Amino acid sequence: MIHVFTGPTLSPDDRALHGQDVRALPPIRHGDLFDPQVTPGDTVVIIDGVYHHSPAVRHKEIIWTLARGVRVIGAASIGALRAAELSKCGMLGVGSIFSSYASGLLDGDDEVAVAQSTNGDLRPCTWPMVRVRRVVRGAFALSLLDEEQTDRLIAVLADVYYAHRTLDAVMHLARREDLAAFAVWLAEMLDGDEHFGDTKREDALEAIAVARKMAAVPIEPVEGLSWSTRCFRQWANRFAAQDTDHGRLPTLARVSYQQVFDPDFKDVWWDYLSGVGVGDLPRTLACKVINPRTELTDDQTAARLLAHETPDDRACVGAYAAINDKARRANEKFFPEAIKESVVRDMLAAVWRTDQAGLEEEAWQRGLHGVREAADAARPFVLGFLKEQEAAR
């Protein structure tokens, strides 16, 4: 399977994205490469990505993907940038924009950045500098501009903030610089071809074509690319997800639900900890001093921690998440992380059938680093739990 992250460079209805071999996805963001549908032997084509309103895809995520035996191709936009930065790690760059970044001819993010609408429309609202440069230099090649005019117009447009560099701005500034003939010519070219001068689109199409040509070529994991830092494990665990009988659910949420609500999870955690190795340490001490590197992207690890999970548990995880989403829509100032710790502690004490003094010990034996981490794990379930308690009265 070829997973293509794009928009606005290519629109969802683009013919190149059609076909059973292609899975068209929105612009890539932090966490998307942990998608369980991206499996060894697949190809990921990174074209577009978010960076302002959501964290951008990290280099380590791409490196981890390469190490799993997934081919990663980059082109046109953030894909070209990441490919230039990670070519030595095995990421394949395609197209003229990638070549320009790799050679040092281009070095600014704003060369490919465009603004998009906030209403879900993935079409670009502005022109990237790579398209400006190509069009202006094309006019120079046709003797519509001389060398001084070409350099001046490129410099003027480069000074415009990328989110303000609309086609109207390009035309206005060309006329302001007494280059009305250029503006007329550009309008005529765009009337004939809306993609005129769109280097990003050309590179994106080339990247998909390359991905299809290489689909039959075996992929080997890139050796020596291993990331096991605490931050990376936190990222991976946060985005790990599995398809279940109640839809796709975050694995971390499912495990946290078990830690909070399974009365016998202490035994599940002890079995897991014993598999890691506890020596002759007593149970209460081992739970406090042994901190295993739990990786929820590993199906076997997830299965061991979810050994007691039932279909009803999965239904609750999904239902509680839906209740939180509904509360956010009703009140934009609501978010589970802001629920008072005293409320969370009271819930934990009721569920664990202990007093406030016993919460700390209970948390450690459930694989949580004390009551504070237990409260963080439980917060997403508080609203749903309290609503259920209220309904039962």
Supply the helix-strand structural class: alpha/beta
- Report the biggest beta sheet as strand number plus sense, adding barrel if it closes: 5 strands, parallel
Low-confidence stretches: none
Mean pLDDT: 90
Strand order of the largest sheet: 2-1-3-4-5
| Gyration radius over CA | 26 Å
Helix content: 40-55%
Strand content: 5-15%
Shape: elongated
First and last CA, distance = 51 Å
Number of helices: 17
One letter per element, helices H and strands E, the order comes to: EEEHEHEHHHHHHHEEHHHHHHHH
Q: What key attributes describe this structure?
A:
single chain; about 400 residues; about 50% helix; about 5% strand
Summarize the structure.
The protein is an alpha/beta fold and 393 residues long. 50% of the residues lie in helices and 7% in strands.
